[in-house]
Amino acid sequence: MSEGVRMYGELFSLKSLAGKKLPTIIQAHGWGGTASAFRRDSIDFANAGYLVLSFDYRGWGESDARLILTGSSPVKPVSGQAQKFTAEVTEVREVVDPLEFVTDWFNAIHWAMGEPMVDTNRIGLRGSSYSGGHILHVAAHDPRVRAIVSQVSPFDSRPKAITVLAGSEADQLKLAYDEATKRARGELGYPPPRQRVIGNLFGAPIRDHLLRYAPIEDAPKLKNCAVLFIDAEKEELFHIEEHAKLAYDRAPQPKKYVIIPGITHYGIYTTAREQAVKLAIEWFDQYLKKGS
Fold first, then answer.
1. Shortest CA distance to 152 belongs to which of 269, 40, 284?
2. pTM of the entire structure?
3. Annotated domain spans of the chain
4. Burial code of 236-255, b = ≥16 C-beta within 10 A, e = fewer?
5. Class (C level, CATH) for 9-74+86-158+214-289
6. What is the tens place of the pLDDT at every residue in 105-162?
């Protein structure tokens, strides 16, 4: 449960390890993906001896969504009471809200801490694309996270760092603040699902939340957490030197930075998938299994 909304997750582990405390990897998708896309990776990690939790953010995949009243509440507020009532509502589905996403990450970790097979002292996070920045933010604020692997990830959602959104920095700022004002005044709702703002990616952003989201600033705050950054040599969605490479430079040890040659952003899921998974397993083996 995240903020009272049910999230969907999938657990993977070897039957031969049933009932044992296992080092645990938690992972979630980036901009517009779902947990189902990680099933092959989850099986690979499970075969390597890990318990794996992949989850869908609220409003994505098979998770429930936040609900908003379509009109005024049918009951008057009563101090000291939480009233039940029937009303017409609308879902908030498939919008990109990094502040909500990181809250879901924290709650996924909280949930895992109550799972019998999870070794609570050996928690690792894996994020891909947009979620790679989320896990850096989460690890910097949750000391239970001991290792993370971030692949092909942006680490700054402020207009100056996001080159794939249309318009100049000034145009993006104006649009973000205009939308925020209209939404706060009830003149604008949330974007409809399945919108495409960046290429073929599903999900329209809550732009004013992007203005306040820069996990690059969290890199120096990591403590006792080993971080592996994996980049694509021919990354086309952002400049890697302003994102993962900069985060690597700012992060404390232990850390590692790897560039996979010859691939673009989405090559991490196709031709370089096995290589990326192998790098992640080696990293987690070193810092979750060996306890370095």
1. 269
2. 0.95
3. 9-74+86-158+214-289
4. ebbebebbbbbbbebbeebb
5. alpha beta
6. 999 999 999 999 999 999 999 999 999 999 999 999 999 999 999 999 999 999 887 7
